Amino acid sequence: MEVNDRDPVTGRETTGHEWNGIKELDTPVPRGVLMFLIVTHIWAIAWWFFVPTWPLGTTYTKGLLGVDQRTTVEERVVEGQQERSIWMTRLESEPYDAILADEALMQTVRGTGRQLFGDNCAACHGRDGRGRAGYPDLTDDDWLWGGGPELIEQTLRYGINTAHPDTRIAQMPAFGRDGMLERDQVRSVAAYVYSLSNPDYSTEVNLDRIEAGREVFATTCAACHGENAEGNREVGAPNLTDARWVYGGDLQTIIASVHGGRQGHMPTWDERMTDAEIRTLSLYVHDFGTGQP
Amino acid sequence: MIRQLTSSERQFAAAILLLAAGVGLAMAATGRHDPLGVHGVIVLLFSGTLLYPVLTGFYEPEPKEDREASYYDDPIKVGIVLTMAWAVFGMFMGVWVAAQLAWPDLAFDAAWSTFGRLRPTHTSGVIFGFGGNALIATSFHVVQRTSRARLAGQFSPWFVLFGFNLFCVLAVSGYLLGVTQSKEYAEAEWYADIWLVIVWVTYFVLFLRTIARRREPHIYVANWYFMAFIVVVAILHIVNNLAVPVSWGHAKSYTIWPGVQDAMVQWWYGHNAVAFFLTAGFLGMLYYYLPVRAQRPIFSYRLSILSFWGITFFYMWAGSHHLHYTALPHWVQTLGMTFSVMLLVPSWASAGNALLTLNGAWHRVRDDATLRFMMAAAVFYGLSTFEGSFMAIRPVNALSHYTDWTVGHVHAGALGWVALITFGSLYTLVPTLWNRERMYSARLVEVHFWLAIAGTLIYVFAMWNSGIIQGLMWRTYTEDGALAYSFVDSLVAMYPYYIARAFGGFLFLIGAVVCCYNIWMTVRSVPLAKRRERDVPAAVAVPGE
């Protein structure tokens, strides 16, 4: 029997082979490794006894605990529904006034609504509901269609400019592009609208243009936006006299709005959410502002 | 490189390249209304480019020396260059997609640069481009040295190397064009997959034939791992990619696996790609370069046997832990979970065997950043295999699944284990292969080491934090039993971690660039080594051969 090398550091023998200078020691497998091997195997085998594990043709070992992930999840869904049903049924059926008067229930609305709003509305309106260009701010009291929970519910349920038969419809025509107004008229009416919320703009220099714009407004725009330009919630026409704008209140953007028109889109949530969810969100959004109708 | 081939081998090479060019032309013609046509052009250009040196060197004098008297190192050198090129590309893509998660505008409003298309260029770029080339190059080196035999082919090593890189190019360019099978880590479409099978079988035959010519009585451990890597990857790749193309002129195909069986096959593939590509192959690397650099014998041959067979056996069962709490039957999940936990012992045995091999060489670990790369790799290997087994336990997975924790776990393995062992091996291999005294700058190796360690730690810690926060936010309920957070809330919470992650990845990328420079300067300006030990195959002609 050949005598193998002995490693001076560990005092172990090598296996007697060498590959390109590499040798291997003949160290036995440490006891700890074997113990660890046994422990993990016992752990694994215990699981096999208790839960479904091994296939047996068309069935499988069911395990002593009799658990199955499908029944587990079904049970937990039912449990969750029961836990929520206490307030869910109230939100589903009670009139809005009653819910608004119940501060405890409104706390639930704020908690649940926050998550619903984040997952469904925040992509456009922002997590805080403040909107951005093209998407209205929901936290002020400047409502296009009205800020009472019933009116918000209608907007939410059927949407604006959607394919739903009960959709709200709001069309700001493209006055410039479609040739209803001359280029100069577009500029004048925009200047007039701009001056409504920016009194500083009504200087000597601009006065003629603003006056010309006022005339155009009276014949062309007042039908929807009202004679005093304060808007009309029946048709979703915004108030043009305040500092709140959906698309932007600078002169250039106003010119763009008059020229190219605006057809905003709010999706319908009728089939996508439960009644309780739609009503929770209506209350939640209503609650954003100062709660005015 | 063409000078080393005989004229019949040159004819064969030219014939293969002409055939490939013809296939490319046919693809370009039949797929002219489809991304397949673009890929046809790429195949044509790729073969044409390689044909150029073959034809210009066609009438050079034939090699006179006995080729069997030296190792075949040219393909390894090219393989190392390709490894580093892919490393920089793949890691850059990683940093880019990481930055996109923090700053989405970095997609620049183009289709090709959206997250969904760039992300697989990162994963395929680093796993197949960087990892695959590193494995091919080092396996060619290790199998020759430990068998004391030259590679059993003159043309086939080039075929394997360039063929594999063609696959990588087709895969990555396809993602940018929107071509994908939507199978994670197996995104490349049917024609690229068929090509990879041809390349891989050639690789397997080449490797086995080289082993068969060995002049050593026993096959060294590193070669067990390389063989396991090659053979299992072939099986995984073929089974998972069984698909029916829409037509010969379309890139699109449909998998033959239905529903949940498709998911199971995919994750049997996915997890064993981790096991046999990213673990077994790189353990082969570790088993050669670590003892060589440490100048120490392997701690325990018996432990090597235990861990090799443990890893090979247990990993095969573990894939279903990727599908906990899904439509996959409960019993399959239990099997995956329990085998994943049993797998921990052979995994740790490997890591322990590597670290205990360093006994008697710890002063070298302290002084030599190259050896420290490999030591750190073994530590990260141990950490991430523990984490993997832990995350495979169903209740733990309920928290970790679908979160950044998984991403952190993958990178603890990919950066900490796969990349570090590769860099350590390359710093050992490059001076040997080019016959230089040493690397150009030991200081730059040191710089690379700390960049890599810092990058990995920042990355992994950021993802642990963000993953656990995500997981907890998704399952937090209010007193009323409703979810407390929206998904967007969890994204807002991720933001600082996404920045940290991109920064960690950036450090790692800079380290790889430093490595490229160091290798380049080593080859260019470090003086040749004075007479080394004879590094040639065993000269004995075995009777009958």
Q: Would you mind describing this structure in some detail?
A:
The complex is a heterodimer of chains A (293) and B (545). Chain A has 293 residues and is mainly α. Helix content of chain A is 49%, strand content 1%. Chain A has ten helices and two strands; from the N terminus they run H-E-E-H-H-H-H-H-H-H-H-H. Chain A has helices at 31-50, 69-93, 96-101, 103-120, 122-125, 149-158, 183-197, 204-225, 251-260, 275-288, and strands at residues 55-56, 59-60. A two-stranded antiparallel ribbon of chain A has the order 1-2. In chain A, a hairpin with a 2-residue loop joins strand 1 (55-56) and strand 2 (59-60). The longest helix of chain A is centred in the N-terminal third of the chain and has 25 residues, at 69-93. Chain A is elongated. The relative contact order of chain A is 0.12. With 545 residues, chain B is mainly alpha-helical. Chain B has two domains: 1-59; 73-477 and 484-529, Cytochrome c oxidase-like, subunit I domain (Cytochrome C Oxidase, Chain A), CATH 1.20.210. Helix content of chain B is 72%, strand content 1%. Chain B is built from 16 helices and two strands. Chain B has a two-stranded antiparallel sheet with strand order 1-2. The chains are: A mainly alpha (293), B mainly alpha (545). Chains A and B meet through helix 1, helix 2 and helix 4 of A and helix 8, helix 9, helix 10 and helix 16 of B.
Structural features:
heterodimer, A: 293 residues, mainly alpha, two-stranded antiparallel ribbon, B: 545 residues, Cytochrome C Oxidase, Chain A, 2 domains, 2 strands
Topology:
The complex is a heterodimer of chains A (293) and B (545).
Chain A: H1 31-50, E1 55-56, E2 59-60, H2 69-93, H3 96-101, H4 103-120, H5 122-125, H6 149-158, H7 183-197, H8 204-225, H9 251-260, H10 275-288
Antiparallel strand pairs in A: 1-2
Helix pairs in contact in A: 2-10, 4-10, 6-10, 7-8, 7-9
Chain B: H1 7-30, H2 35-56, H3 74-102, H4 115-147, H5 156-177, H6 190-212, H7 221-240, E1 243-245, E2 253-255, H8 259-294, H9 301-318, H10 330-357, H11 362-367, H12 369-391, H13 394-400, H14 404-433, H15 442-474, H16 487-525
Antiparallel strand pairs in B: 1-2
Helix pairs in contact in B: 1-2, 2-5, 3-4, 3-16, 4-5, 4-8, 4-14, 5-6, 6-7, 7-8, 7-9, 8-9, 8-12, 8-14, 9-10, 10-12, 12-14, 12-15, 14-15, 14-16, 15-16
